[in-house]
Specification:
The protein is of the alpha/beta class. The protein has helices at about 15-20, 30-40, 55-60, 85-100, 115-120, 125-145, 155, 175-195; strands spanning about 10-15, 40-45, 70-75, 105-110, 150. Strands 2-1-3-4-5 form a five-stranded parallel beta sheet, with helices on both faces. α4 (about 85-100) links the parallel β3 and β4.
């Protein structure tokens, strides 16, 4: 039936968090939870332990032109090994490719979700880089001055630190459900005002 068809096609790029790790079933992941709320056909391109914004991955993703929306959850796996200036170069290339391929379609950049580095271990390389990465993402989106390039704060998506599993990086089932609800609502709001 027509009402059962997905309303939009969503390409979600990110880390193991985007894949759904930490949930007892990948269908419980925040992307899948948000997709149900949006009635979206989601292509989950989460790369556990990777998501390093390699040019080859950016090129591959940008060639998938069937989407109507993209989310980019980037940075968590890069923060201990990629200096901020290199992070900025990689992210600018990825965002540039995604916005160029379909300039009229929304690309949503998500800053880091709260995790163990956000509050307790701020002066480690990962903690310092996480803060710098988030500022870089905000600056890139702002400087682009592109109405189709949107920023979503990770702290507006994972609003409860208790939503993390014992590793304090991956959300639990409850955390993923909360994130899916918050991201779904945020995207509905942004997409409706975007048109």
């Amino acid at each position: 039936m027509a009402q059962e068809k997905p309303r939009l096609r969503w390409l979600a790029y990110g880390s193991s968090i985007t894949t759904g790790n930490g949930a007892t079933h990948l269908q419980h992941g925040y992307v899948q939870q948000a997709a149900m709320r949006l009635r979206a056909d989601v292509w989950n391109k989460g790369l556990p332990g990777a998501c390093m914004c390699e040019r080859e991955v950016a090129d591959f993703l940008s060639e998938r032109v069937e989407w109507e929306m993209v989310t980019l959850e980037i940075g968590v796996n890069m923060r201990s090994s990629v200096p901020p200036n290199e992070f900025a170069e990689r992210v600018e290339y990825l965002i540039g490719r995604m916005t160029a391929i379909q300039p009229a379609k929304p690309v949503v950049v998500i800053t880091g979700f709260p995790n163990f580095c956000t509050y307790e271990i701020k002066e480690t390389v990962s903690g310092i880089n996480e803060r710098k990465y988030n500022e870089i993402l905000r600056r890139i989106v702002k400087d682009a001055d592109d109405p189709n390039l949107l920023l979503a704060e990770g702290t507006d998506i994972l609003t409860e630190f208790g939503g993390l599993t014992a590793d304090l990086i991956h959300p639990s089932d409850a955390g993923h459900a909360l994130m899916g609800e918050n991201l779904g609502n945020l995207l509905l709001s942004r997409l409706s005002s975007h048109k």
